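Q: Protein A?
A:
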Amino acid sequence: MKDYQIRSLETLSGNDPSFGRRMSGGDHNWKSKVVLLHGLKNDSGKFSSFKGSYVGKRHTWFRKHVRSIACMFVLLGFFFFLDSLMVSIFDSINLQNTSTSKNSKGLKAKDNIVAYIKNEKPPIEMYGRLLNLASSALAEKEFKREKSNFWEEPYRQASVWKPCADRRTPNLGKPGESNGYILVSANGGLNQQRVAICNAVAVASLLNATLILPRFLYSNVWKDPSQFGDIYQEEYFMNKLKDEINIIKELPPHLKSIDIEAIGSLITDADIMKEAKPIDYVKKVLPLLVRNGIVHFLGFGNRLGFDPLPSELQRLRCKCNFHALKFVPKIQQAGALLVRRIRKYDSTRSMLDKQLLGNFIPNFPSEHHNIARGRSRYLALHLRFEEDMVAYSQCEFGGGKNERKELQAYREIHFPLLMERLKKSNPISPVELRKLGRCPLTPEEAALLLAGLGFKGETYIYLAGSSIYGGKSRMHPFTSLYPNLVTKETLLTSSELEPFRNFSSQLAALDFIACATADVFAMTDSGSQLSSLASGFRTYYGGGQAPNLRPNKKRFAAILSEIGSIGWNDFEDRVKKMIEESQRVRVRGFGRSIYRQPRCPECMCRSY
């Protein structure tokens, strides 16, 4: 309305020529009248007569048009009132809408902030000073283009040992008539099951029995229904071992209906001690096998020790693990895709690639490899920091009161036996547990370890394992130093991962491949099955060019305990010395795992 009035006035004054002429003409008439009055000032009679006549006419005109003038003023007043009223109404509406919009945006912003606070925990740092020193050191190395020495094996003797577990033994074949059939239902995840399979092969040979292709128990923890043929190539496995033992896929028809438990041939982990010796099987299991013709091992987790054991059985276990168990093509193909994407370039096929990926890594001209070789390296890290492991350790990890409550609640639900044991004993304090090296390394500690070894911040790192306890808040210190972190979930698309969903063992097989074929493999818990088997595979097939980084947690805890005073150069020197000592080339010691440390005459041969 206001704009309309202004535009109307502008139109009247600026665009209507008659209005302008009337205004200028009015001014001219008044000037003429002034001149006329000056000319007649001495003629009072004529002037008085003229004046009276003029005034009379003016009053007559006014009386005649008074009503029109009054109506015009009333109408103008009405228009002004209506204009003011409309402006007030519109301003009120706009003000209300603006206020509502601001309040709505304010509430939404507030809700978002509250949601962020609830869903995201702040980053947890235990070694802020060392992280700052590490960050500065990595930046300096990047500027100087320094290279870590831990991309290579430090000792030449590592290349002396060669794979030879599949060699043929003269005058040694399968024995005569079988004593019966051995069934194995293995528990645990992929790597526990792999150990159980090869231990079953050794026991079948020891007892002169026919092995039924092992089956896998369904676990409420792993929730994976996969069976042997879903993960490993059945025919290849049977053919590879056919000269040593008899292996068949199923029981003969006449034994399928037998109640094995009723006849006393069901053997659980409670019946056979952990790390049992061969004599235990000969005394307890062989009589049942001969009498009933069948025994069923239920569970079979780590139920065969490593020493003392006849050398031929040791060789057979190595042959099973390193030669007979091949992943099915579906897993090999996905594993090859995974490795190619993290390397970014196709690189020379190593013995590890050939054993784990079969024919799914294409061959390229050597010139292609030479161009890309410098940019294809990656480090695989098995970071054991899952909630169950963290809770079971009884350690503290810098999360304060909330973390202690959370882990205590988890222990009470998932580890009732542990809680009962703790009530009956004096538990070791978290501080003492850390000094003893019994606490899992946090992501922050793992990052400091890699930084101490001189790995640059641009290093590509493949993270293997399950969900990290604490999520992003825990991983923040790690990714702040090493942002190029990838997993199978980030390297493969949803459609490529779809065939493996709900099959945790098959997904674990992809992690196994990525760790075993990496340029460097680092672990935070050398006692885990994946770390043991992957590092052993690298030792067996790596040709002395597949370094493993295995920290001593007790020594590392002692180094970290000096957080307030230790300098970065001192930290680097001590961390490097710790890892170098673990990389010394040693023959497998008595009682040590042959799957983790295959350097022994039964599995590998020395070349001079």
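Q: Protein B?
A:
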Amino acid sequence: MEEELKCPNSSSEKRYFPESLDSSDGDEEGVLACEDLELNPFDGLPYSSRYYKLLKEREDLPIWKEKYSFMENLLQNQIVIISGDAKCGKSSQVPQWCAEYCLSIHYQHGSVICTQVHKQTAVQLALRVADEMDVNIGHEVGYVIPFENCCTSETILRYCTDDMLQREMMSNPFLGSYGVIILDDIHERSIATDVLLGLLKDVLLARPELKLIINSSPHLISKLSSYYGNSPLLEVKNKHPVEVVYLSGAQKDSFESILRLIFEIHHSGEKGDIVVFLACEQDIEKAYEIVYQEGSKLNPDLGELVVVPLYPKEKCTLLKPIDETEKRCQVYQRRVVLTTSSGESLIWSNSVKFVIDVGVERRKVYSPRIRADSLVMQPISQSQAEIRKQILGSSPSGKLFCLYTEEFASKDMKPLQPAEMQEANLTSMVLFLKRIDIAGLGHCDFINRPAPESLMQALEDLDYLAALDNDGNLSEFGIIMSEFPLDPQLSKSILASCEFDCVDEMLTIAAMVTAPNCFSHLPPGAEEAALTCWKTFLHPEGDHFTLINIYKAYQDTTLNAASEHCVEKWCHDYFLNCSALRMADVIRAELLEIIKRIELPYAEPAFGSQENTLNIKKALLSGYFMQIARDVDGSGNYLMLTHKQVAQLHPLSSYSITKKMPEWVLFHKFSISENNYIRITSEISPELFVQLAPQYYFSNLPSSESKDILQQVMDHLSPISAMNKEQKICEKCPETTEQRCTVQ
């Protein structure tokens, strides 16, 4: 086996089995001598001294002792499953070993790709692994995340988010450019990962030379083993035991218990950082304010308390995980990291000695019946609780404080966290699978079947959006929609904007609603000043138009600013999120590139004219006719057109700020929670809705006063107008679809 894995460019086997290096002699001369003799087979250059320093750190990882066994299994099997605790090293080391395998066979079957659920993790792993391999990031090792590609055609090992590998299958169904595919963090059960698990079964049959590595937490292993048959399994455990303290009674007032624990630990003088797992992002913001304010009053002799909010769902900033190499001040600093579920994969530092776990989370659960998300507070799973414990397993004397009882953990917590596929809107997934069906990979053997009602609702929505033909296959319109890495409703609005001559404006709206919230988190006491600044951007026609104003102001500032610092200062002065606006700029550029690539018509911008305003609303309605609400009592209580839920406008809506409540609005987001807010709203007229909503969608609406009003509007239309509308708008008609937007 060692002969098979020997590097063709080196006479030494040590490159592929670094454990055979004599690391007992740590003198500098030995390192320099080795450095002179040994070349890096990936770039042909001598190894740097940093490579050998990092190599010793790698050898201390729990996964390292399994290297020989892994390489042997990789040679002899098509699928290898790795069961590893958090921070055992599987996400950084296994891809490097796979790169060595591909190099040893001269990349005849392709390179290595490793998926991650979170884009922050993909970027940080690529940076770390490039450093460990002593190569350049963006060349031999790279990453691909939504709207950012840091790879070349010569990249040997790339990290990517699971949704990016899924999208790659649209143009490369059998993933022929890869010899090894690694699916990491399977236990997080994202939709894209579950889809890849199913589709790769067929790809493996079609490509016997392809290797698949599956990394997961131990809790999911039995399910994976039965799903993929008799595949070899490697198990890796962390080194150190963890002390677990259950605090009965803390659940009743968990927030107060968390704060008390943080300050008790800090006063104890025990060294080490603290990670706190909270239920939701609102709790992060609340805890941040309190700990920040109270921490500034502490005795400076105890050291500085540095509060680090970590938002796993944040899409704009690549949040840097806690890094042991960060320089500390001379005064001792203790970091308090505040995060939520899914933040486990972002905690890399061995300096974490304390974890506080509330044991509950706020999950977003989609209801296909009402086409809306509900925010539900529920216990975390036993697997999530175990992963939080494993964060401490790589350092001795770690302590986990559970703000719940052992009985709660055994009785109320389910063994595994629910798959996202069973709780989310599946319209985008079904559109992708319909597109893949063109390549003969439409059948997907899911590890957990999605709910039939969710699939039916997704198919119904795609039918309403004219993405399907009369046989249930993708229409030409649907194929074009699938080219955009967006929600299908947003893709439909962009395509409709081609007809209504407002593509430029629609791309800006699409970029701004896809990027994170452009409004900054406000520090205490800054609300009034922020509202004064934001009022300068308000547009009387609604929030979608306000977003265009903000983006145009940001663009003008960027063009006229002397430096990037000036742009950041402008954003800070106006309480805007600079990184979110940068991301919107990147997203918009990619969407424009897609428009040009498939040669869709692109009109000159005309923002501000009355005709353009009407056209933007038409384009928005073409995609979001299923998200309409009406103010039923004139006081801002909006009843959804599709169900009986009542909601209010978000406090940051332009209408809330100006106190002018339109009767009919189109909205972008709605979640059922304690505050039933509809977000990003713009006024529409019932006449416009009747003209643009598909007739068969309108006929399927439940009976309501709002529907009766719309029916009256429809009845008042002249027969000629009704006939013209039917010919022009009916999205069931293939001929009409072709007229509205075709690939040139």
